[in-house]
Predict the 3D structure of the following.
Amino acid sequence: MSTQEKKTIGILGGMGPLATADLFQKIVLLTKADTDREHIRVYIDSNANIPDRTAAILSGGEDPVPEMASALRHLEACGADCIIMPCNTAHYFLPRLQAMTKIPFLSILTAAAEACKAQFPGKTVGILATRGTLAANLYQEALAQAGVPYLVPDAPAQDALMRVIYDGVKAGKGPDSYRADFLTVLEQMSAGGAEVFLLGCTELPLAAEALNIALPTVDPTAELAKAAIRFCGYGVRGE
């Protein structure tokens, strides 16, 4: 592939910074490349000033779009050929952002739903996500569109997941601080019929890895990384 043909990725990040780093690492690890020069050029704006997306959706919190648009303008100026966001809840605002630019956004929701359909056909997916993502029906709609059956955590389980995400991973705490909450949610949803778990918040793959979760899971961050790699015309390791 010539330099002229190579496409680049823009990561609209900071939601949160660790999830942004995780997405970049997965792009690097999943790209078929034997040398540094065979990797994709990636522009990252890790804008930690973006207001909380769940609060904006559920309780009239500050609109995150102006700060997200600021990052978008920086990525446009860099010359990104596609934009990806390592935050599931942020995809509630994707239609507003896409209307601001001609650069295509690749959706983490679509990438994850298609992976559930392809990797676990006919299996019931347990959606693990923030209250904002669940209240906005982001994954419910994406999975329904892909024809994938799903279960949603009940209110206490949603509270437990918010503790894992906000009081655990986002706060920089170790896995012992959220182990009980995470395992309780998995056990309850498994008993309710969930056969595979969609880690629908970008902090949750980090938590699942730290806890060595052995249950079948789909990592939307990894699926988004693969979608971006394919968009740029590169090969995905293992495919």
Remarks:
- DSSP finds eleven helices and seven strands in the chain.
- The chain has a mean pLDDT of 96.
